[in-house]
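Onboarding guide, step 5: your first structure request.
Type a short instruction followed by the sequence, for example:

Predict the 3D structure of this protein.
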Amino acid sequence: MKTLKLIIVISCCAVNSYSQSLGDSLDLMKKTLLIEYRIWLVGNKDTCYYLLFKKARLLKQANLLDWSYRELGRIGSDNKTSDPLSYEKAINSFLRSDFSNAFHQLSNIPDSIRRGTKSYLYLWLLTLSELSKWDECKSLLSKTTLYGKIRDEKFASLQTTLKYKSPEKASRLSSYLPGLGQMYTGNWGKGTTSIIIHAGLFWFTWQQYAAAYFITGTFAGVYPIQRFYKGGRTLSYNLAIQYNEKLERETKLHYQKVIRKLFE
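The system replies with structure tokens like these:
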């Protein structure tokens, strides 16, 4: 009897943590507490695993992903549950944007099952696209039995090698000629503006020094030139990073559109 009371108290505390994230959802509290009580009563291992799966999915539906993953960790990975467990953990990790762990969990599933089960294959393809494993993702798309849904031009437009811009090169180009690094990253407007600003400051500085206004030339010309010069190099570096991030983001979206089209 003492053990039963202890389990109920612990379960209440755990469910109370869930409820804080749900705005005190009494329905979830009742369901999870009832499942936990049934787990305590049942001695059969398979039934316990089934109940833990049910509890984990309830928590996942309520967007309590960390708690859901902990419940999945209570399930033993024997031969009967290893593949469904890995798949459930992979979904949970994917929803938490932990794509590396999702990849690891799916890798534990035999290739024949991972490719042969529609839901497993769908998650596997999405995970590959999120991890920028373009070659593997495109190769798998070409081998799937659903390939006929993809138009040839759409499949051919899927890139496996992206042409990134080097942040170091962009910064170096701007050190040679202000504005050149911005042009290298495709920002022609910013590059042209940078060239015009630097040319204007150089002309202004030369005019001031020619008129013997050395203090004005130094503080209103040389100093701004140095600031704009350093700022231009930093801007070029950051623009290259932004270009690469945008390229990856667009490529992922392209892959995901094709993947979703397959499974419609």
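Each response can be followed by summary notes, for example: The mean pLDDT is 84.
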